[in-house]
Structures are given as C-alpha cells and as structure tokens.
C-alpha cells in the first residue's frame, strides 16, 4: 500500500492518503501528525476527507485513524482506552478512564515533564511492550467552536526515550473536587476489573481476555488509583506509579473443570455452568471473574463472591444436594442459617444471571449419549484437531492436541455412552480403559461446557 504520509499507530503503519486535499489542508495534516510519522510501507490506508473546514478534516481524520488502527490490531493487543506517559527509561504508566475523566489534560501536563505516548489508547502486546500512538491532541482554543488538533511537539510535550517501551503501571484516574495534591491507593483487581474491561477495545476478540488483563496487572504489581483535583499534582507522583522492574506477563492456564452428568431419578433438577469466554480466579478472598459474550458480541464481566465460586465450579450436571456439599467443603457450614436454603438462594441468583443453567437429569434407564453439536465445524487428525462452534459468534477456534484430539476423534465415530467413548480412546491409545476413564469423562464435560458436545 502507499500513502502520502505514513504514521505509526498502535504498532500499525497507517498511510494517510491526502491526494484530494489542497496545499493548506495537506500542510495541516503533516503538521498535526508530524510526531507520529514513520518510514516503511503502510499496512493500511485512511483516505482524508475533502470539503469542510481544516479543523473538521483533522478531527475526522484523527478518529478514523484511531478506529482503523484498533481494528487492525484486534485480537492481537490489549488496547486500553487510556493516556500513556513514558518515564526516561521507557517505563510507561497507563492512566485509565472514560471520556471526560481528564486523560487529555493529564497527558498535556504530564507530557511536558515526561514522554507523551498517547492520550487515546495504550496498546500492549503479550510481552508487555507498549506500542505508542503519538496522535495530535484535541484542544479547545479561545473563540473557536471546533476543537483544534495539535501535535505533541507543538504543545511542548516530551519525546519518547530510545528503545522499546514497557508497561510499568496501570492507574485508574479519579479526578474530583476537594483533593489536596494527589492521593495514591491500591485497588483490588476484582474491584477494578469492570472498569478495565469497559475501557478495553475489542476485548472479545482477544484470546483469554480476563487472564490477559490479570497477567498484565500482575506484571506491574497491581492496579492503583490516583485521586486529584489539579493535574499538576500528578507530576511528582508519576514515578511511584510505575513498578521499578515490570515482569513479563504470564497468562495463567484455564481452570480445569468438567465432569459427568448425574444419572438416576433424583435429583429433580441438575445445574451446569454456562460456558464463559474466559474466567479468572481472584484470591483474598476467593472470587471468580467470568467473561460471557452475548449474540451481539458484547462482553459482560461478573465477579462471583461468597459461596458462588464454589457453586459454579461444582456445577457439572449435579443437583442441589451436591452443590450444598461443595459449598460446605469449600467454606464450612454456616453457623446462623440453613445451608440448603442459602445455597438454593445463591443458585437461583446465578441462574437468573445466566451464569448457571438448569435442566432435568438423565434417566438411569436411558443413559445419555455423547454427541457433537450439528453446528460445530472441525478439521484435523488424531494428533491435532481444531474445532469451532459456528452458532456462537463469540467463539474462537479451539486447538486440541494429544489425548484431547483422540477424544474428539472418538466422538466423530458416532454417538456413544461414556463407556463407548472411553473404549474408543483406549483402543486408539493402546491403554487400559480404566486408566483413562476419569480423564476422558472429565474432558467430555469440558467440551460440553464449551457448547461443542452434548449428552442427551
């Protein structure tokens, strides 16, 4: 691709095509984007609008470049709606907040003392590297109805240090009246997670979104909140908002969950987990964050607390009695109330929130057959298989290798009871069925939770 001007935006080279602009408009574009200019061929192009005022042109161009860059990097980077400020050694503090929280003002004030990364989006890759976006800032100028777009250098904002930038701090901005100086406090991840999710772009396209956020938060020593009235108070505290030596983010493995359906005439109802796109265990106290995606591809984060995490983990097609046992095993018997009543109330809330689903149990006289859903596509062979639930717009391809692939291939041979699937896998792997039965049955439950298979 070619463009009249190539700029760096969130790790993408964007070509600004200005062929239809007159000399004054072209000069205005060059001046506004001078600090983001880079070399090399463009990865994507954005064509500048013609007609209208120069201010309108620059405002529209800034928005379109931002959207194009975010679109190009979806599923690849954690893109946080935040201002980014770099310390001289390349450590970056991300200042998080929705529009109107003071990010642009903080960027201007802090950028005069440190390096300006962005006032719009902080893009972080899996290693913790920050990809800058030195876009023009949107500024209100006296006597003008439209905002001006001014380059960081024109506004006196600092250059970036040489070398790569590394995320070293995640800070929630809390601008309010009546605060003397800047007050810094630690924020529990469970309390900050909803805002971090809300301020993330294309999070539903990111593999393991909650665990990715958790890994980045852990790498910088946790989330901070800074309360202030005047942005000038942030200058002196910025260095303490950055961890001295950020570690490499390490995304945790998914929870190992699964189990076999309950059979028999009792209980009357059985409960199963509604499979989330991702889950993140939170400690001290024990909580569990779940990220579900609806048909419109919108994500919702829920943090389960109290006895809810134990109930969700245990809901493998079991009845209320088994859930009561799980809650007591995890947290002990309640001293002041009936355990069954408490668990039933909690389960009803989880069902109402679409975190658990309820169904009738399989009958002992007619054991359920395991089957692959009709709307699941797959490809591969016994060593590696990739499967995808086509009916779920939020689903991502799932790669199965080793024994997991063997179990899938066994399912493709046709519907079967658990014993049938175990026998097929045992024959393929040349092992005794009893040696692998628990693992096979557990993994069948995991596939069911992912809406890839069902037993009925």
SSE map:
Elements: E1 5-9, E2 12-17, H1 23-32, E3 44-47, H2 54-73, E4 78-80, E5 82-86, E6 91-96, H3 103-111, E7 115-118, E8 122-124, E9 129-131, E10 137-139, E11 148-150, E12 165-175, E13 182-187, H4 189-198, E14 200-201, H5 209-219, E15 223-228, H6 234-237, E16 270-273, E17 278-282, E18 287-293, E19 299-304, H7 308-314, E20 316-318, H8 320-331, H9 339-352, E21 356-359, E22 370-372, E23 376-381, E24 384-389, E25 398-401, H10 403-412, H11 418-429, H12 433-449, E26 453-455
Parallel strand pairs: 2-3, 6-12, 12-15
Antiparallel strand pairs: 1-2, 4-8, 4-14, 5-6, 5-7, 8-9, 9-12, 10-11, 13-15, 16-20, 16-21, 17-18, 18-19, 22-26, 23-24, 24-25
Summarize the structure.
The protein is α+β, with helices and mostly antiparallel strands. The chain has twelve helices and 26 strands.
Rg? 27 Å
Number of strand segments: 26
Count of alpha and pi helical runs: 12
Main sheet makeup: 10 strands, mixed
* CATH topological fold name of the largest domain: Rossmann fold
**CATH class group of the largest domain:** Alpha Beta
Strand content: 25-35%
Task: Please give the CATH architecture of the largest domain.
Answer: 3-Layer(aba) Sandwich
Helical content (DSSP H or I, runs of 4+): 25-40%
Roughly how many Å apart are the termini?
53 Å
How would you describe the overall organization of this protein?
This protein has 456 residues and is α+β, with helices and mostly antiparallel strands. The chain has four domains: 1-73, no CATH class; 75-252, Rossmann fold, CATH 3.40.50; 270-359; 370-455. The protein is built from twelve helices and 26 strands. It has helices spanning 23-32, 54-73, 103-111, 189-198, 209-219, 234-237, 308-314, 320-331, 339-352, 403-412, 418-429, 433-449; strands at residues 5-9, 12-17, 44-47, 78-80, 82-86, 91-96, 115-118, 122-124, 129-131, 137-139, 148-150, 165-175, 182-187, 200-201, 223-228, 270-273, 278-282, 287-293, 299-304, 316-318, 356-359, 370-372, 376-381, 384-389, 398-401, 453-455. It is globular. Mean pLDDT is 89; it is low at 258-265.
